[in-house]
Amino acid sequence: MQETILVLNIGSASVKFTLFSTPSLEPLFFGHVDITDKALTIQIKDNKNNCIYQHTLDESNYKNQQEHALNLVLNWLHQQEHFMHVKAVGHRVVHGGEKFSSPVKIIPEVILELEKLIPLAPLHQPYNIAGIKSIFKNNAKLLQVACFDTAFHAQESDIARSYALPENITPLKIQSYGFHGLSYQYISETLPEPFATQKNIIAHLGNGASLCATEDKKSIATTMGFTPLDGLPMGTRCGSIDPGVILYLLSNNMITKEITDLLYNRSGLLGVSGISSDMRTLLNSKEANAKKAIELFVYRTVREIGSLIAALGGLDNLIFTAGIGEHSPAIRQLICDKLSWLNVNISAEFNVQNAELISTETSKVNVWVIPTNEELVIAKQTLNILEKISH
Ligand code: ADP
Predict the structure, then answer these.
(1) What's the rounded Cα separation, in Å, for the pair 182 and 205?
(2) How far apart are CA 69 and CA 110, in angstroms?
(3) Residue 61 pLDDT grade (very low, low, confident, very high; cuts 50, 70, 90)
(4) DSSP 8-state assignment for residue 297
(5) Does residue 62 register a pLDDT over 90?
(6) Are residues 89 and 228 in the same domain?
(7) Which of 136, 206, 239, 286 could be cross-linked to 322 through a Cys-Cys bond (beta carbons 3.0 to 4.6 Å apart)?
């Protein structure tokens, strides 16, 4: 029977998994559990994209929804023969802090370090850790590997990572860590040569959104920073704001918990539109505030692209990825139109087809649409550690 690796991506609103065969890393099954206040919905597909299991639980009184969602996944997996042969579990862990700049085998000391980083990624880190603990509860001996969204940025220069603050003011080093690194790594490895090593900007535009400037497949600079709040406006996160705003909110008697909720959950596309965090809903709306939210998203993305072009000293390729980047011709068109001064030109026809290369032949910058696959990067990193341990 084929041996497998389970990849888990546990967030605040979903648990996603893929079961890969080893060593070929062919996906066998993938699925997700969507978590809302009212229900947990699990959907699992096979490698031909056929839905093979779907179930909704309508109860809302789970103490720990993520654990419950993960148990739904594990219960289903336990009935599959492939799962008997899981050799390792790879986890997406959003923040690796200063200590982890490459994937690690998870031991109790690692969990303690990851817990210190919870305040730096409150929407993700606690759920990532809960998943790890839950798996250990089921099987204390199984190899678990943490794969970090921050790791890809660890090679950025000290200057690119620094803030103009005095050093050592807190136990955790205050610097830009950057995120979405698993996605940036996948895109850098997938873009064909010789383009992959050129001066590139990857636009990971999903519910969380950031940009990364790369050269020689390495991160030069990125828009997210100390936390995944920084940079572009996102579904519900504010992106860059003047830090003075937070001081002002504090002086207006808002407490940390309220400010955290405001900046992480009630801002971004949702906050500006007052309608939705979902780009599709906003694109379909005629409301003025929906239009404003889209306009602000595009404006800020283009401004940050300008900043990254300056950091790179040029631009050869612009690559769109993640939910909005992969599926929204309208947003890609709006962004590229505002870059026409750079001689960025895209073909309307290729753009609506979500084609891989959407720029025209005369465009000075190649514009690509490449679907990301963070799970495959996690599976590769996990397999690597598994092989090192077994030899
Ligand atoms: P996450 O960061 O949760 O992984 P995704 O990468 O799945 O998020 O991206 C979710 C975002 O992608 C949502 O804002 C959603 O509206 C947007 N999206 C997905 N499909 C489309 C589409 N066809 N047109 C516009 N936006 C889309």
Answers:
(1) 14
(2) 24
(3) low
(4) H
(5) no
(6) no
(7) 206
